[in-house]
Structures are given as structure tokens and as C-alpha cells.
Amino acid sequence: MVTEREREAWEAASTVLDPEVPVLTIADLGILRDVAVHGDRVRATITPTYSGCPAVEAIRDDLTLALTAAGFAEVEVRVALAPAWTTDWMTAAGKEKLRDYGIAPPGPRRTGGPIPLALSVRCPRCGSLDTREIARFGSTACKALYECRACLEPFDHFKAH
């Protein structure tokens, strides 16, 4: 059973924005894994999108500030690398926020079997499937850079993994 204080801690932690995609919270992104409360102490566990993610320290600081502001005297932020983060942990609302922000959200992750061939990525601006990958890495390592041939706009695509 979740206590009122645990709910308050989760809600405070869930307000923290991802510094690389500031329309997403860390809860939308699925990297907020756990929030445990013990009296005035709270421990939040996050799993970064990849082990070398440069945003981890900023997220740790922002979590500490949010939980301290919520009245917790002692805050610990743990980073768990296993199990590895997957785009399957992103919320549907988070994927919609990406699309509204102009980033094509990831599709479902495939496990096992043949390597999937992505024939196209839908443009988040005009909806066209007439797109092409320009660069395997976009503004961050989690994204690839695409171009829409219909509206001629470049856009990031959040890679599924």
C-alpha cells in the first residue's frame, strides 16, 4: 500500500524535466524507476537512457531540489544501469509530447528474430511518410536526424532501443 508521503514524493519527482528534451518529465521518459520514503528520507532511483548519458548529473540535481522542496530532509538519488532502459518504458503521453514538440517518437522495440528494416518514419510536422535519414545521430545520441521530403523540414527521430 502506498502511503500519502510516498505519493507526494513520487509526484514531486515526476515533475522533473529531462534536460535534453524539456517537454518530457523523467516519468514520461520512463527513467524514474522508484521512489522510496523512510521518514524524512527519500531515495529515488533512475535508469538513464544509456550508461554514458550526460544528463544524469543534471537530473540528479533537479531531483534533489524537487524532493527537498517537497519537504524531505535527506535525498538520495541512485542510478541503476540494470535492467537497461528501453523506449518501451516511455509513456504514451510522453510519446505524444515528443510528436507535438516536433520529434518523431520511437516505435515498438523488437526483440529476437530478424533485424527489422524501418521503411519510413512519419514526419511529426506534416504526417508524411516520405522521409529519409540524414544522420544516424541527431541532437543527442538517442535520436537520429531525418528530413521530410513533403514539407522539407528536418526533424529528430527518437530511436527505439
Write the layout of secondary structure elements.
Blueprint: H1 4-13, H2 26-29, E1 32-38, E2 41-46, H3 56-69, E3 74-79, H4 92-101, E4 103-104, E5 131-135, E6 143-148, E7 154-158
Parallel strand pairs: 2-3, 4-7
Antiparallel strand pairs: 1-2, 5-6, 6-7
Question: Would you kindly provide a written description of the structure presented here, covering whatever features stand out?
Answer:
With 161 residues, the protein is α/β, with parallel strands linked by helices. It has two domains: 4-85, Fe-S cluster assembly (FSCA) (GMP Synthetase, Chain A, domain 3, 2-Layer Sandwich); 90-158, no CATH class. It is 24% helix and 23% strand. It contains four helices and seven strands; from the N terminus they run H-H-E-E-H-E-H-E-E-E-E. The protein has helices spanning 4-13, 26-29, 56-69, 92-101; strands spanning 32-38, 41-46, 74-79, 103-104, 131-135, 143-148, 154-158. It has a four-stranded mixed beta sheet. Strand 2, helix 3 (56-69) and strand 3 form a beta-alpha-beta unit. The longest helix is centred in the middle third of the chain and has 14 residues, at 56-69. The chain starts with a helix and ends with a strand.
Separate helix tally: 4
> In the CATH hierarchy, what is the architecture of the largest domain at level 2?
2-Layer Sandwich
User: What overall geometry do the principal axes of the alpha carbons give?
Assistant: elongated
Low-confidence stretches: none
**SSE arrangement, N to C:** HHEEHEHEEEE
Q: CATH homologous superfamily of the largest domain, by name?
A: Fe-S cluster assembly (FSCA)
Give the proportion of residues in helices: 10-25%
- How would you write the strand order of the largest sheet? 4-7-6-5
